[in-house]
Amino acid sequence: MNRMSRGDKKELLPEDREELLKELKDRFEKNMNRFYDCSAESPKGRRSLCYDRKALGARKEHKPANSAIEMAAAMGIEILTEEEYRELQ
């Protein structure tokens, strides 16, 4: 892939960018059952959650808007078990 320098930033040429996006999309679609969110920090909309509805109901102060289990279900995904999580570490 060719890169074009613009100031301090390096940017892909438009045709290289399209090629990269297509390759990433193809990889993602071939490996959908293997993709995990392993970001160093959870995105803003996925912070401050209780684990499940029971934990959410037990909160007296600073009650989050949602639970991790309900949010995952709404996204159509499953939360890793502790064993799966540790394996990824």
SSE layout:
Elements: E1 3-6, E2 9-12, H1 14-30, H2 53-58, H3 68-75, H4 82-88
Can you summarize this structure?
The chain folds into two domains: 35 residues; 47 residues, no CATH class. It is 43% helix and 9% strand. The protein is mainly α.
Structure description:
- It is a single chain.
- The protein has 89 residues and is mainly alpha-helical.
- The chain has 2 domains: 1-35; 43-89, no CATH class.
- It contains 4 helices and 2 strands; from the N terminus they run ββαααα.
- It has helices spanning 14-30, 53-58, 68-75, 82-88, and strands spanning 3-6, 9-12.
- It has a two-stranded antiparallel ribbon with strand order 1-2.
- The chain starts with a strand and ends with a helix.
- The model has no long low-confidence stretch (mean pLDDT 83).
| Helix content class | 40-55%
- From the alpha carbons, calculate the radius of gyration and give it in angstroms: 19 Å
Strand order within the widest beta sheet: 1-2
Order of helices and strands: EEHHHH
**Helical stretch count?**
4
**SS content category:** mainly alpha
Low-confidence stretches: none
Mean pLDDT: 83
Strands, count: 2
Give me some keywords for this one:
single chain; 89 residues; mainly alpha; 2 domains; two-stranded antiparallel ribbon; 4 helices; 2 strands; 9% strand
